Every structure is written in C-alpha cells, then in structure tokens.
C-alpha cells in the first residue's frame, strides 16, 4: 500500500507542476498543442483501433477506427474555435467579463468498450482547457490506452506542452484508483464506465463528472419511413457490435405498422427469435444473479452469441430480435445489453408506445438517450417532453447520433451526461467547456428601480406584492 | 541577461524574460559551472522573469536538492510566476 501511495503522490505532484506551467499559456499556444495531439491521434486511428480490438476482443476493428475518427476529427472540429483561455466574453451592457481558468489535474477513467477513442477524446478536451490529465485505463485495455496516451503526449511535447501534462497509470489496481480519486491535489474525475466505478468517483470526495447506463427505447410510429428507420437502427446497433451505451436496446412499434417493421428487419438481415430461442438467449445474455447484462456477450458478434445460446441463425445475421410482452425482472432482455440484440414491442397506439418507452427508460436508462422515428412534429415533441433522456435523437441512428457531430449539431463527445436520474450533474455531452472554472468580473451597474424605491416600505407589513410591483417598476 | 553571482558561499542567480526549454538548456550549463564551487546557499531571483517552462521548474528542483534543506530559496516573483508555485504547491517549499 505504501508503494501505491508513493507512486500516486509522485504522479499527482508531477501533475500539479504541469498545471502550474500550463496556467501561463495563452490561447494560441494551447491551440497549437491541441492541434498537434489531434493530428497524431487521427494519423494513428487505424493502428489504435486494431490494438484496441486485439487487446479487448470486443466490437469490430473497423468500427473502432470510426470511433477514433469521432474522438479526434469531430471532437477537434467542435472545440478548435472555442475560447478557453483568459477573457472569453466581455459584455459592456451587462458589465460582466468572463475569464476562463483551468480546473487542475483531471483523472480520466477509461472503459474497456471504447478505450483508445475515450483516451484521445479526454486528452483533447483536457489540454484545450489547460488541464493536465492522468489516464486510468480499464485493466482489459491497458496496453492500447498506454500507447495512445504516449503518442498523444509526444505530440503535445512537440509544441512545448508542460511535461507530465499527460500521464498514465502503469499497473492499475483498486487501491491505486482509490488513492488517485481521493487525492487532495486532484481537481476532477471524468468517470466513464459502469455504475460501481461512477459511484466510486462520486464517493471519493473529488468533484466528478460521471455517466449513466442507457436502455435506449426506439419508438417507430405510423408516420415513420419504415425502411429508413430500420436501416438506421441496424447501422447503429451493429456499430462496434453494440458497445456504445447510446445504442438502441428496444424497438417499440405502433401496432398499425408493427408487422411491416418486423418484416423490414428480417428483410434487412435480422433474425426474429422463436419463443424457445428467446429463453436460450436470456440465459447467456443476462446474468440473473448480478441482475445485469452478461459480460460474455458484450461486443460479441451475432454468430458467437447464437452459438453460446445454442441457436441456429442464418449466416450474416445482423441482429437477434426478441419479442417481449413486458419490461422488468421477468423480461431480462428488456434490460441494457451492449450487444447486437434488440427487444421488440408492439404497442396498441402512440400513447401505449410512449408508455412502454417510459417503462424501458426507467428500467436502467434514465437520463441517457431515447430515439424516435416519426414525421409528426407534435408527436416528436410530446414524446420528448415525457421521456427522461438527455438526448432525444430523431430519425437517426442512436449510437452515432448521441455522440454528436455526425448526424446532428450536438457536441462530439464520448462522455454523455445523464442528469440526476443517472446520478450525474448534467445531461450535456461533455466537452472542453465543462472543464473550466469561469470567473466573472462584474462592473457597477446599479439597478435603478432599487435606487428609486423607498426600501423602508419593505418593513411595512401592508406592502403586498402587487403594491410593491406597482411602486418598484413604475416608470420602467 | 542572466547573472550568477557568488559571494562567499552564497550563490545568487538572477534570471529574466521568458525561460523556455531552449533558454533553459543554455542556463543549465552556466548554472552548473557556478555550482561547481559548491555554494552552501542558493537564491534564484525571478524578479524579471515573465515565463517559465517545465525544464526550468526541473532546474529549480534539482538545484534545491544540491544544497541542504532550507538553503535554497526563490526571491522576487511577479504574480504570474508566483501563481505557478502556488498551483504546484512549491510556494511553501521555496518560500515564494
């Protein structure tokens, strides 16, 4: 334990020294550093993707290339023109000037599902906001994360970034992670990972930005373009074998179009499971003891999952679809399962569809993402008003949509806030601006109504709100 | 222009301007020459310094280790530079 503390103390001292040096740098210098890191990351996107796939055995190597592209090209595009140093706004009218200050050292916890992409994403947003960063990789993805961090660090140093602006843990352990998380010199934890990790971050005493689990429902209503909707869902759910937390988990189709939706899924290469096959799949896809998805299926291809479950499916099947009659404990496949598996519901009508989506939403996915395919704006608004999701993606693939930048104008991000429902502090797609302490200079701009009002009247009990407003705001 | 003044066993090093990594390389050579005299007390005067790099901070730490604890100090820092020592927690160590 003493060794761990010595290691952590040294790492944190290196980090605060880097923070000190960083504090002097102007926007121009910071932007040169960020550009160099983005270029190094993008140029190595294929190498990193293959390393991640080979080390974790999860997902699809080519799709990990795209994740790396999102984490570099699209994240960079989103943040490159952001003002993150010094005076970032100056409004003579309000008399308020905003100054951006860094937070200090950031601990970036990286999941096994999106290792190299999360490393690059977090490094870019941290350096853009002049915060040194320490990468703490999942033990199943240490080597690919280390190599990614190392190449990013070399690129940063080539533009005179502070030494130790990027560090990484060599042999992570629970003790080391705990020591880092609760270290007095740490400013923030960026916790992307499972529930227990996010809880540990929040319990550490250090401010933390965490994420929540997703259980994304997809409402397909009678006004949807069905072939288009199905194509988008497949594109999303098969992306990296369903490892993105924003991927669709359940289809909820209005009865009037449900048969057409099912047929379209089959036509486009998916397999509708028979009842006995659904039970077989439940046994391998869901860990009933721990009440969560089974790690054995996460990021695995359909072929492997079908083999595990003892189910015969056509060659090149893209997604396994399991019709369900309820949401909850008795329907294990109604839970989040990060694999090419979809639950399927037929709703009586739109209201019933929204109700089922609410059930799914509240079954382990509050605050994350919801999806709707519809061409009725009123219905889209109604759905969005009711569902509890930080992102409601409309007529687009959910995985690629929720991360932002590709199919919409949300900030490109690999850390998606889920709000208080997910025990997070925000529903935003986390980006560089979340890693700043904003200071405000405020100039004297006296409220004229206040100056002209006889404040002695406040002590007169007969002063009602109406009388006060009449007097306070007169001549305004 | 940097200056290294040895008076008895006290070495005062005065630096100025921007001390990036290239500047630091040259300064280190000059500093090491002065350290060869094995001063017992060392002061880094940063009154005219406007920017320091990680390399310079490393030089500060290495130089501090070359004398007995308490015999190395930093004098006359501008606010920007003072802030660096505050953020890094080295202000108390070096009496900034």
What labels describe this entry?
heterodimer; A: 476 residues; alpha/beta; seven-stranded parallel sheet; five-stranded parallel sheet; 42% helix; B: 96 residues; four-stranded mixed sheet; 4 strands
Molecular structure report:
The complex is a heterodimer of chains A (476) and B (96). Chain A has 476 residues and is α/β, with parallel strands linked by helices. Chain A is 42% helix and 17% strand. Chain A contains 17 helices and 17 strands. Chain A has helices at residues 2-22, 27-43, 45-56, 61-79, 115-128, 142-158, 174-181, 195-203, 226-237, 255-267, 275-285, 302-309, 350-361, 377-386, 398-402, 448-452, 465-472; strands at 86-91, 96-102, 106-110, 133-137, 166-168, 188-191, 208-210, 216-220, 248-254, 271-272, 286-287, 292-293, 320-323, 341-347, 367-373, 389-394, 436-442. Chain A is globular and about 75 Å long. The model of chain A has no long low-confidence stretch (mean pLDDT 96). Chain B is of the alpha/beta class. In chain B, strand 3 (41-52), helix 2 and strand 4 form a beta-alpha-beta unit.
